[in-house]
Inverse folding.
């Protein structure tokens, strides 16, 4: 099976702009989670989607949002970008069947905000 | 809520030496435990996981970890490391049941020197 894919891999934006990142989960996986990785804060949970519904949300401002489509693909959006939003954004998928406890990660999208 | 402490931020070792990366966790509920590895400019790759059963779990690339419930620890070990094991290693926990997020430690940078 193909792994989790994320596009784009690299992105440069300026402050105040908005950005949309995309994630395609492993085939058959219906849960998609997003994480932000920075040198200072480490890996932090953003949100999780299952069957097009947000099931869980981390402590991030409302500028961070996401959605999931009927084919389980997910997007996250960050509006009004700030310098501190520069990070590696990782998407992970998991199955609701046996082994659903395990999240499998994509390669990430590296966002640089200037 | 859960928390994870990785006791060493950096671990330098020589090639073919044994290594142990330490991880302690805190949780008021039962958890699943994971170790992930991150190579430069890549996402997270699952090394191994403890879901239930035998407390000694074996993973990929010759790594193993032992779950110790009384000490709330899940230390990662490898009897003989290679240069290619140089990477950052993350310990993570996830509360059992439902759509629970992964909580990560700050990571341990393993550097294997020739």
């Amino acid at each position: 099976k193909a792994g989790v894919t994320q596009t784009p891999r690299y992105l440069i934006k300026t402050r105040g702009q908005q950005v949309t990142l995309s994630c395609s989960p492993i085939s058959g996986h219906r849960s998609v989670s997003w994480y932000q990785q920075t040198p200072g804060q480490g890996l932090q949970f953003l949100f999780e989607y299952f069957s097009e519904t947000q099931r869980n949300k981390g402590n991030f401002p409302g500028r961070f949002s996401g959605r999931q489509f009927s084919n389980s693909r997910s997007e996250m959006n960050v509006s009004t970008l700030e310098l501190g939003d520069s990070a590696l954004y990782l998407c992970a998928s998991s199955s609701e069947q046996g082994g659903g406890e395990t999240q499998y990660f994509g390669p990430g999208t590296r966002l640089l905000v200037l | 809520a859960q928390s994870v402490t990785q006791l060493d931020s950096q671990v330098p070792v020589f090639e073919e030496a044994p290594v142990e990366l330490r991880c302690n966790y805190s949780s008021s509920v039962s958890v699943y435990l994971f170790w992930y590895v991150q190579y430069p400019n890549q996402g997270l790759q699952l090394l191994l996981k403890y879901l239930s059963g035998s407390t000694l779990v074996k993973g990929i690339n010759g790594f193993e970890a032992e779950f110790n419930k009384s000490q709330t620890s899940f230390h990662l070990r490898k009897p003989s490391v290679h240069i290619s094991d140089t990477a950052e290693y993350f310990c993570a926990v996830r509360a059992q049941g439902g759509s629970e997020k992964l909580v990560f430690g700050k990571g341990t940078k393993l550097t294997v020197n020739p």
Observations:
- The CA atoms of residues 1 and 27 of chain A lie 7 Å apart.
- The first strand of chain A starts at residue 5 and ends at 7.
- The interface with chain B takes residues 4, 6, 31, 33, 35, 42-43, 45, 48, 50, 55-56, 58, 90, 92, 101-108, 110 of chain A (CB under 8 Å).
